[in-house]
Design the sequence.
């Protein structure tokens, strides 16, 4: 059983829905999961956390959604003590935005690494042009990731 924290950032609700689906799937597999929409960075320092999963869309031009801006600012300005915390990022985006494709997820991935968390997998980048139902990609990816934590 793994203790997993999902922190989601969303403008129109897609990343929220994806996170809820991941939570349901992981709980069905016996894991303990908390999902925070626009989470607090301090939660990353929680006791006994096995994995932090950050699931975010991108808005503007490579920007983090408004409900994750406090989280992003805290990672840069007042980082929580996360040394050794395992994390992974699921980034929702749209490749028609060119260089800013999945920019928010990529920024948060780098920020987590910079404050001492340990990336367990390269970010999953989900392109809205290819996937109208991103949960179909994200849920099996997260299930396999968490199953692999134990080994
Ligand atoms: C105004 C606006 C700006 C966007 N900017 C970007 C962007 O810079 N890069 C990107 O990859 N996707 C961008 N997107 C696409 C969204 O990230 C994508 O549609 C995502 O699935 C939306 O998820 P959400 O419903 O959780 O917000 C943008 C979408 C909108 C509507």
Sequence:
């Amino acid at each position: 059983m793994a203790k997993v924290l999902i922190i989601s950032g969303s403008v129109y609700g897609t990343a929220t829905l994806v996170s809820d689906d991941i939570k349901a799937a992981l709980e069905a597999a016996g894991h303990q999961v908390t999902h925070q929409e626009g989470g607090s960075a301090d939660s990353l320092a929680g006791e006994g956390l096995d994995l932090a999963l950050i699931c975010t869309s991108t808005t503007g031009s490579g920007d983090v959604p408004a409900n994750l801006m406090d989280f992003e600012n805290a990672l840069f300005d007042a980082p929580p003590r996360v040394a050794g915390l395992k994390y992974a990022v699921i980034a929702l985006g749209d490749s028609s935005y060119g260089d800013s494709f999945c920019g928010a997820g990529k920024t948060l991935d780098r920020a987590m690494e910079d404050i001492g968390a340990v990336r367990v997998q390269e970010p999953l980048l989900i392109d809205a042009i290819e996937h109208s139902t991103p949960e179909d990609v994200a849920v099996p990816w997260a299930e396999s990731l968490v199953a692999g934590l134990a080994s």
